[in-house]
Amino acid sequence: MLSLAALPLGVRCVVLEPDPLAPARLCAEHLRAAYTDAAGLERLAACDAVTLEFENVPVEATAALEGRVPLRPSPAVLHLSKHRAREKAALAAAGARVAPYAVIEYAGELAAALSRVGGVGILKTSELGYDGKGQARVSSLDDSRAAWERLGGVSCVLEGLVPFVREVSLGVARGPDGSLAFGPLAQNVHRDGILRRSVFPAASSAATHGRARALAAAVAHAWDLTGLMTLEFFELSSGELIVNELAPRVHNSGHLTQDGGGVSQFEAAVRAALGLPLADFEPLLPCGMVNILGWQEGREPDWDAIDRIPGTRRHLYHKASRPGRKVGHVNVVGSSIDEVLSRMDAVEALLDG
Ligand code: ATP
Ligand code: MG
């Protein structure tokens, strides 16, 4: 999707990705090699800038590029955001509130951690979690010991449960000159730990929207971001925001910017990476997105029925369908939020079969 957004700007992408079925092979020059492949990295070093849509690239790969080509976001931002405990500390240092948490390196630390977060919490691996993987809800010491074993006994954080009224997210792009542009405050609904749908505008107040932008700006400046990142927030009933986590890249909740009118998050990311002028990438129309998850054999969704709903556009990733895997999304636009929501309900019903 980044490569597709780059094309109209006169920009072509080179993608280093070991998966032979990488979706980008269809619209970019695909270097099918390990992230640490010397020839592949050489080719990337010859580009105008390098960015990522996957933050778990090995440090050796980014280290090999550093100083040779602008890396946006920088290795320093990636270092902070790929590790939950480091990320939380750096968010707090930038003035953002985070959930109560404790770092777990040894089983012996679980008891104190559990009482610190109020006896109930979510144990999350510090690295490599996504779509709710690498997490477990715990409500007793026995629970948390078993969960920590199941998670592999690796470095974790135990987070207190946040009583949020809604989840929202916001993208921010920052250019090499420090200029900022903001994406939409999208409202997100998860199902089974996986993002189900995002809607813009969120039901949050204007004051909360302003807070989200101020926090994103504060973190972008404090971390000296160049490129695009997305903050996930828990909104409390008071309208206060707690930062859940940060993605140093375009985000699933920003996919709705492809069809709501205006600049998409993908174009914003390309512009920020290349130092092109930035503009806010908030959609011009109410819009939403429903994720398409891989289906069971013989249960492919009725695409024709989805296409017939006005205001919908399908985005398929050309990935093999596996149950639970994100293989595409449907964007929905409408002239009012109610119209968007009823169209999204219809799409969701068709996707659920
Ligand atoms: P993703 O890849 O979808 O961003 P992830 O695996 O990185 O997910 P998180 O964002 O940490 O995981 O958590 C996934 C979801 O679980 C959150 O969006 C939220 O719905 C719920 N959740 C996580 N942490 C908490 C918490 N401390 N309190 C309440 N709910 C939480
Ligand atoms: Mg998340």
Mean pLDDT: 96
User: Tell me, what's the shape?
Assistant: globular
Q: Indicate the structural class.
A: alpha+beta
Radius of gyration: 20 Å
Describe this entry's structure for a reader:
With 353 residues, the protein is α+β, with helices and mostly antiparallel strands. It folds into three domains: 2-81, Rossmann fold; 100-160, ATP-grasp fold, A domain (Dna Ligase, domain 1); 166-352, ATP-grasp fold, B domain (D-amino Acid Aminotransferase, Chain A, domain 1, 2-Layer Sandwich), CATH 3.30.470. The chain has helices spanning 2-6, 38-45, 59-65, 75-81, 84-93, 110-116, 141-150, 206-222, 265-274, 303-308, 337-352; strands at 14-16, 29-31, 101-104, 121-125, 135-138, 156-160, 166-174, 180-191, 194-200, 227-235, 241-247, 287-293, 312-316, 326-333. It is built from eleven helices and 14 strands. The chain is globular and about 55 Å long. The two termini are 27 Å apart. An eight-stranded antiparallel beta sheet has the order 11-10-7-8-9-12-14-13. It has a four-stranded antiparallel beta sheet with strand order 3-6-4-5, covered by helices on one side. Strands 1-2 form a two-stranded parallel ribbon. The model has no long low-confidence stretch (mean pLDDT 96). It binds adenosine-5'-triphosphate and magnesium ion (MG). The site of adenosine-5'-triphosphate has 19 residues, from strand 4 and strand 11.
